[in-house]
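## retry 2 of 3
previous attempt timed out at serialization; input unchanged, resubmitting
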Amino acid sequence: MRGRNVFAPKGRLRLILLVEFSPSKPLSDIRETNDFLRRTWACLRDDAKIGFQYTPWLDSKNQVQHIGFLSLGAYSEILLEKGIGDPVACSLSYKKRGVVDKLIFEIPESWRRYVDIQEVRGRILGSLSKVDERKLNTSSCNIAVFTPLPLSIPNVSGKKFKLESGIGKARLEFYVNAYDKVDLQDQKAYFAWNFCVLASAWSGQLFFLHNSTDAFNDYREIVSLIHDGDLTESLNQLADPIFSIAVDLLALGSSAIRPALKASHLIQRSLVAASSNRDLLGDTANTLAISALEVLSDEGADPISCKTCGQPQYKISKRVRDFASDHLGGEHWRKWFGDQYAVRSKFLHTGAIRHRSIFSGKANPTVQVSAPGGMALPMHFAYDHVLTYLTLMIVRNYIQRITEPNTRYL
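## retry succeeded, writing output
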């Protein structure tokens, strides 16, 4: 931890003092970085009464992540009285992207006339000296979650949460660890939203933190297609103990659940797209479903390099085909998902939608090579509910595989 005076060259900068602060021990990853930042902001809120103007941008050339600007409540009143509105600039430098090397606070030159700059420096450093000692507090939270249809949501519970049954709405109870009230609100929202994401991907029904009944014109039809006409049985899948374990792993911040969580975000958005307008957004919904499988199939291994040019060969299509076949069982799925991936690639890279025929009356056959069957069909065929159904099966199977070896941590 250190502060140093830096006087700006005239006419270039309006900076009078840098205050730099480094973690007491080097950080190794993003998780440690975010915990460090949460503790830092909590200490500064307590002692310096900071408020953020959050305007992040990345200077990768100089390895600096600019965070934005902050006000120091202890000095805001006197500065405003004098017409001084310049805030303190805040950034972090890094050697490894996403891992803090040091925090940097830049106090503007305009403050010099009205406040004691060394006092400002001392107040900031005094707050930061408490970062290592900052302790987590555990709080009980209670929040409502909604589904677009008035269907019965079952009781679900794990070691870290409880979902009380309701019709189209249920109460989610859980515990979070936080460093202060602002951090508590952030952690509360993070867990509740990610619960909704996992529940959407597990059940094939949408979950939100607000009532979204009016936003999805095609939702009932989409759910009916995916679940073969049964609108309620899919919600009962939430009572599966495997789902409860997955939510508990989420509550613990386990890295094991992260790929499933990222894929679940894509699946939820796929369902949103299809439910909003399956005619216009069907191709988008299909693309998001395939992208979810890309996420799950990525084991982080380095790609094989081309023997001729030395460039990496990612072969993502093959990876997705193999992954889907492994989880569904059966070699025929390799070709099926290969065809789906090819349609998705044409949509993304050439703009080829699956179905261009707008007229939905009697057949008027025309050729359309981008459509899976080679002929143009009405637009409402664009959404592939079979792809969504199979993707949901794969996600549940994947979550079951990753939860079983991690139950010992609960």
